[in-house]
Amino acid sequence: MNKARIAVLVSGGGTNLQALLDAQGSVINSGEIVLVISNKEGAYALERAKMADVEGVTITRKIYGDAFEKTILDCLSSHKIDIIVLAGFLSVLSEDFVKHYPNRIINIHPSLIPKHCGDGFYGLRVHESVLASGDKVTGATVHFVNEVTDGGEIIFQKEVEVLPDDTPEILQKRVMEQAEWILLPKACELVSKKIIEERAI
Ligand code: GRF
Q: What's this model's pTM, rounded to 2 decimal places?
């Protein structure tokens, strides 16, 4: 079978990337991670890619300036990428970029969208916002990316309990373990399968 070709875009530690790499051959069967692009030099996610024998590339705004997105697009196209996964990628992509891959870019957000999302809601800030709101339940959302930050069609959501003594760090870890690392591989398989099926028609 010709698998869907997946690129994962990262900026940091890459635990979601690791969950995807670990899910290959079990949860992810219709797709294959063939490329990791980091917009931060020395991101640990690149080490994870290397250990899994996946090509890793660094493309930063600092080096490429106005050609940043064009350089990423060229790299994706030369690797014949079908699906782009934003896994802790802390750079907002332009409308123009997104238009190149309609319903082919997936993002993971650590809250139950439409709560605690949008511009400025990333990393621990999301969990700080959940704790400040007094919500008893939070979770994670995997969604397609369109031109609105955290605004594309929702693929999966999973709830996670908020406990009385939670700190943003503790809550972040629980949301990752109980929701993000489970949902993202499942969403990759769903979208990969759809691509393969469309190809067969
Ligand atoms: C995750 O919480 C993800 O939901 C968000 O950024 C974080 C990335 O963590 N978009 P990691 O780099 O995958 O460990």
A: 0.95
